[in-house]
Amino acid sequence: MLKYVAGAKPCKKLPTTERKSTNDYEKTRKRDFQGKWLNIYPWLKYENNVMYCSVCRVQSMKTKQHESLAFVKGTYNFKLESVKQHDDSIVHKRYIDIGEAKSQPSCKSKAAEALRTLHESQHNSLAIKFRTAHALAKTHMSFRTFSTICVLDEA
Ligand SMILES: [Zn+2]
């Protein structure tokens, strides 16, 4: 580009020790919790100078799983990117689904609705399959025999 502009010269670069790299800026940058994140992410809570996910914290306490996650324990890593990553995480999405399913009355759940739409013969057939699967599990038998036993049940 400079060769096309008459009289233009490249600027003098500072020695690398005097230049502040992006990494240096990120290391020394002081981050604060942004209150506007609460409007974007309704599950996000901020208490005692840490932010956490209210949904994951409750579900984690119930299941005794994922208790060491940053958004369960609470984190002061106030980066929007970390909030976004948590929002997209598999654990968070699963806990959101569990929370929504438990907040609905059981008669309005998707499973209850599916059961209502089944015909009586389908319902009985499904009940037999569940009993077979239960019996296999209780007797520690291989699940490979499940389809064979189901064929025998239909006969
Ligand atoms: Zn979460």
From TrEMBL:
Stored Pfam families = zf-C17orf113 (PF25431)
- Per its UniProt record, what InterPro entries does this chain match? Znf_C17orf113 (IPR057456), Znf_TTF (IPR006580)
Ranges for domain TTF-type:
29-108
By its UniProt entry, which SMART domains does this protein fall under?
ZnF_TTF (SM00597)
Q: Which domain of life is it from?
A: Eukaryota
Protein known as: TTF-type domain-containing protein
**Protein source organism:** Dreissena polymorpha (Zebra mussel)
